Amino acid sequence: MRSALIYQELRMPGRVSLRSGPAPRKKEGPGDRLSRFRRERGISQSDLAGRVGVTQRVMSYYESGRTRIPAEMLLRIADALKISVYEILGRATSNRSPKNKKLWKVLEKLEAMPPHDQKVVIRYIDAVARTGNGR
Question: What pTM, to 2 d.p., does this model score?
Answer without folding.
Answer: 0.53
